Amino acid sequence: MHQNGDQNVCEYDQMVPSGMPNSDWLLGNTPLFLTPPAFSRMDTMQSYLYRKEASDEYDTAPHNIIGRTRRRRSGHAVFVSFEVPDTPRAPREIALQLLSLKFLSEKHLEKIHKLFEERPVWSKNALRYLTRFTNDQLKYLLPAVAYYFVTGPWRVMWVRFGYDPRTQPEARMYQTLDYRLRAKGGLRTKVKAKRSYCDYLLPYKSTPSCKPKMAVIGTGEDVPEFPDSGDDKGHLEQNMYIFRPGMMPPSRQMFYQYCDVLVPEIQDMLEKLPEPQSQCHEKLGWMPPRFDDRCREILNAEILKSFHTELSGGTISTEMMVADDSP
């Protein structure tokens, strides 16, 4: 649409013919029309309420003048690298205050506390499977009981406040085993990638207003203990954090803990480990050299055996499956 004198003229009918045009339509003049450089990413009308950006009174970080990268959305979690001399002993006060704001009760927190008392180091996938809490709930529960290792032998793991695995040799059972699987041929149909460009979702599609809603009519009886957690039992499988013989990893890159790799050969190796070194290594932790490589070779053999079992009459060579040894 453009303005011609005092009136607006719509060019749509002239550019897009209606019905079956004759040959005279090709001889007519074509209006000059330049498409916009960028189109909207939204395919439906959206209502946006403009409001002033609120200042965060708890934000003590210096202002990023250059602004080359987006700031991490930590959710007030404590991120720790391997080089930090001391680990945190208590959560931030704002992390505890957010629990009540997000309608998380003491029962939610007690369930997480109990698991960290049984084991000081957990992966988020393991907690999702055992507690059946959603990602949104764990986003606020975990910073209240544990800190997050960014680098080192326990990277991508949550560690209980006050516990430093770098000073505890028995913590080697909880170290991270980064296992990656390069798939070729038919192997790709069995083990999917974590992310795909085909599964891209527009940002507004994930908002609550775009999700289907279900009306539930009840008398208030038989209220579940954790009503907000949802029943993910049909979507969460044990192989998301545990590996057993005969299991298939859900994705081509998995972050296991050595105690959760329930392969007899690997468990025997863990029981027969030599005495740990006097100091925790930045990459090896408390494990001997090449121990993780040997575990990856065993996992390759177990997965290959599972493929031979599932594919009746099929032949799969070791060339189809190569583990990525990069850390």
Unreliable residue stretches? 216-234, 314-322
Provide the gyration radius in Å: 27 Å
| Major sheet description | 4 strands, mixed
Spell the H/E element sequence. Answer: EEHHEHHEHHEEEEHHE
Shape field: elongated
Work out the helicity level.
10-25%
Number of distinct helices: 8
For the residues shown, what is the average pLDDT? 79
- Count of strand segments: 9
- How does the helix and strand content classify structurally? alpha+beta
- What fraction of residues sit in β-strands? 5-15%
- Biggest sheet: strand arrangement: 3-5-6-4
- N-to-C span: 56 Å
Can you offer a commentary on this structure?
The chain has about 325 residues and is of the alpha+beta class. It has a domain of about 210 residues. Helices cover about 20% and strands about 10% of the residues. Strands 3-5-6-4 form a four-stranded mixed sheet. A hairpin with a 2-residue loop joins β1 and β2. The longest helix is centred in the last third of the chain and has 20 residues. The radius of gyration is 27 Å and the shape is elongated. It starts with a strand and ends with a strand. GO terms for molecular function: RNA polymerase III type 1 promoter sequence-specific DNA binding; RNA polymerase III type 2 promoter sequence-specific DNA binding. One of its GO terms (cellular component) is transcription factor TFIIIC complex. This is Transcription factor IIIC subunit 5 HTH domain-containing protein.
